[in-house]
Amino acid sequence: MRKRRPFRFTVSFCLLAGLVVVGPIPLVSCGSASRSLNFTTIDFSGSHETIVFRVNSSGEVVGSYFDSSNAEHGFLWQAGSFTTFDVPGGVGATQAQGINDLAETTGEYGNNQVVLGFLRQPDGSTVNIDPPASAGYTEADGVNNAGAIVGRYFGNSPGFQGFVFSNGSYTTINVPGATNTSLFGINNLGDIVGDYIDASGATHGLLMSNGNITTIDFPGSTNTNAQDINDNGEIVGSTVVNDVRHGYLFSNGKFTMIDNPGASLAPSGLPLSGTDVHGINASGEVAGTYQDSGGVIHGFVAK
Predict the structure, then answer these.
(1) What pLDDT, on the 0 to 100 scale, is given for residue 269?
(2) pLDDT above 60: residue 229
(3) From residue 70, how far is each of 3, 42, 50, 65, 84 by CA, in Å?
(4) Which residue, of 30, 132, 216, 297, is most buried by count of CB atoms within 10 Å of its CB?
């Protein structure tokens, strides 16, 4: 289930946001956007692939790594220390994707050729997250402090369908006209981000807020997703420009491109090539993954 050294690096990029809205159209501005980031690489010892997804306000990071037998395990990381875990019943495939400020963790795990979402408490106990309409594949991707969970599942209809799980009830979310809808992140205000695939096969980021769906397209991109949103409305995700994958921050109508200095910028069709930004916490610290020129995949946090 693959999605999802300190450096000093400054990123500067400004483009007019490409936005399409179902509902009221917001005003979008564009000015100079720059941000100085300190990158810290997160590698699980002995692993050829460490994937970082989210970071909470306490600096707790979640992700997964692959061992020498290519089995995938979830982990929590804080201040250089790893705590690994596997969901009971999982068969060599546990991926931790979301974490809130209560250290509740979401993700998915493999179980007898079925993939189920999960919610894990700090004491290690877990419950399954699986919409009734799922046909054997569910991801629980993001969770906020109220325990609302967003994700996606395969049902009887073709393509992914997004869902929200809140107060014991599941709600399916599909963008009108889309062939796939995925929800990845939710903040404490209930704003949700994700992506959808249109009828032409193009992937667009989405923001769902106050009943309106806004499309987020990085200008010049052939593929944009939106992975996470904090309570300040800052959105992070990934985009493909000229066949190269980059992370981005979208804040106050401005895009800032984020490339880890250790990432290979060679054109590649691999899903984790270049830089992916998966998470952002309340203070603006970001989390993600990059692939180096040797093909090794590393996690990172940056602030």
Answers:
(1) 55
(2) yes
(3) 15, 18, 12, 9, 15
(4) 216
- In a domain, residue 171? The reply is yes
DSSP class of 110: E
Q: How many residues does the chain have?
A: 303
Using CA atoms, how far apart are residues 223 and 218, in angstroms rounded to an integer?
8
**Rounded Cα distance, 273 and 292, in Å:** 8
Note the pLDDT of residue 105.
Answer: 98
Question: For residues 206 and 195, what is the distance between their CA atoms, to the nearest angstrom?
Answer: 5
Count the domains in the chain. 1
CATH of the domain at 184: 2.120.10.30
pLDDT at 242: 84
Q: Which residues, 6 or more positions from 9, have their beta carbon under 8 angstroms from its beta carbon?
A: 36, 37, 39, 259, 260, 261
Between CA 199 and CA 203 the distance in angstroms is: 10
Domain with 47, as residue range(s), is 7-302
Instruction: Count the neighbouring beta carbons within 10 Å of the beta carbon of residue 208.
Output: 24
- The tens digit of pLDDT for each residue in 164-212 reads 999 999 999 999 999 999 999 999 999 999 999 999 999 999 999 998 9
Picking from 71, 73, 72, the residue whose alpha carbon sits closest to that of residue 85 is 73
How far apart are alpha carbons 253 and 242 in whole angstroms? Answer: 23
- The overall longest dimension of the chain from CA atoms, in Å, is 51
Note the pLDDT of residue 35.
61
Structure tokens at 196: 């959808």
Average pLDDT, the chain: 88
Residue 17 near residue 250 (C-beta atoms within 8 A): yes
**Residue 64, in any domain of the structure:** yes
Report the alpha-carbon distance of residue 263 to residue 276 in Å, rounded: 10
Residue with tokens 């499309």: 215
Per-residue pLDDT averaged across 282-289, rounded? 97
